[in-house]
Specification:
Blueprint: E1 2-7, H1 11-22, E2 27-30, E3 46-48, H2 51-55, E4 66-76, E5 83-93, H3 95-108, E6 112-114, E7 117-125, E8 128-136, E9 141-151, E10 178-188, E11 196-200, E12 210-217, E13 220-228, H4 236-248, E14 252-264, E15 273-274, E16 277-279, H5 295-315, H6 320-323, H7 325-350, H8 353-361, H9 367-376, H10 381-393, H11 397-418, H12 427-444
Parallel strand pairs: 1-2, 1-9, 2-6, 4-11, 9-16
Antiparallel strand pairs: 3-5, 4-5, 7-8, 8-9, 10-13, 10-14, 11-12, 12-13, 15-16
Helix pairs in contact: 1-3, 1-5, 5-7, 7-11, 10-11, 11-12
The structure holds flavin-adenine dinucleotide.
Length: about 450
Amino acid sequence: MYDVVIVGAGTSGAYTAYRLAKAGLKTAIIEMKPREKIGEKVCGDAIGEHYFETLEIDPPKLGVDAEGIFEGVKVYSPSKKYFLTVRGKGYALNRKNFGQRLLKMALDSGAELYDKHTVVAPLIKENAVKGVKARELGKGVREFNAKVVIDASGSGAVVRTKLPREWWVSYKVPKEDIVMAYREIVEVTENPDEKYAIIYLDTELAPGGYWWWFPKSPNIANIGIGVQIKPGNPNPRIQYEKRIRPIIGKRYVKTLHAGGGLVPTRRMIPCMVWNGFIAIGDAACTANPIHGGGIGSSLLSGLAAIQTILEATEKGDYSIRGLWKHHHRYIEFYGAKQASLDVLRYLLQKFSNDDLEYVFEKSIISGDELYDMGTYGRLTSKVVSRARVALKLLSRPSMLKMLKDTKDLMDEAKELYRKYPENPDDYPAWREREKELYKRVRERFL
Ligand SMILES: Cc1cc2nc3c(=O)[nH]c(=O)nc-3n(C[C@H](O)[C@H](O)[C@H](O)COP(=O)(O)OP(=O)(O)OC[C@H]3O[C@@H](n4cnc5c(N)ncnc54)[C@H](O)[C@@H]3O)c2cc1C
């Protein structure tokens, strides 16, 4: 019997295992990949430096688990005539080495790894998760029992989605809240910008998402595209071939690696815990609703789970009540901001290229304000009043109204999440308010 069984040795799973094992808990990680492939994840590989202090781990090292360092991000308008610079140090990770570092930390702290084990089902008894069943590659199915199971299996959420429908935590994520992404690691003759990760907004090329060019080194780049899953939206790989490759043009030398994946780009799932169970990372929808960055926030959700489980261990209470504080911790770290940015996502997914071009051309938002929005999830009144001047002159009152409503709804969403129920008894009423708020958001941006 383990204290904790963690499903998935990705970023959130390995980090959580490290801290729990270090605190003395008997911890197992169950991962379907072979040990040497852990960390190999199709990704944009970019992470901001600011996470590492909170996580209390060393930032990546250049030449070890980082391949490049950014001074910030540049966001381009659809015509590429305008851009905003969001300053802030970040890393182009060597994703595999980063994953292997976290794994080593976990194993050195005493966590046990069961690699080549695919989790196939939860073990459920008396309204609680008691463990998981996993199939070892080429062998049979075995059971792992634990006081708490953590689902850190990424966007597939392989445990959470197999829990009984009536458990709040088994919430089904709507398809349109997911972005399908495709990226290539490419050798190039040069990058458009050595010091900045670049995001290109273009609602025709990448509907509901964007495409990116993140330099890794003078001749290597991570170039990719994310598209919202929605009927009629194009396949990102085809868009990459048809639209992005010609833009890379003569700078293209060869493709070193290619692949795709899914990113849930929305607010956190409304309930993340049950008796003996916590979901973290993509399995709980912790990625940023606007840019889909999910490495840092998946680690923060791991940190929330670590603190919650240590407290539950002290009290000997792994019930939904004993684990409930996980929500408050995660909301404080990231969830409140995510809830408000999810409102902004609806606005951005409604915008046309023409609308976006106006926002850039009229300098309605500055790079610092964009940073502020990304960091705190708030749209300042300054942006709305600047928009008022610019858009009135351009006789675009509907866009102005939309911006104003967005700001109000973002504030309301953040406030609602900050008032997350203190205990499970009050959850059903809160959930009704949450549903009602996002119904209004959807209707506003239909
Ligand atoms: C194309 C793309 C680009 C992205 N770019 C960025 C970026 O630039 N910056 C950023 O911050 N985020 C980015 N993201 C998002 C980021 O990769 C994820 O948010 C993050 O990896 C989530 O971490 P996680 O620990 O929740 O899951 P993962 O890192 O996905 O780990 C899940 C682990 O669970 C294992 N697993 C799955 N199923 C089972 C099973 N049945 N049994 C056992 N093990 C299982 C997997 O093998 C994996 O090791 C991108 C995502 C994609 C798809």
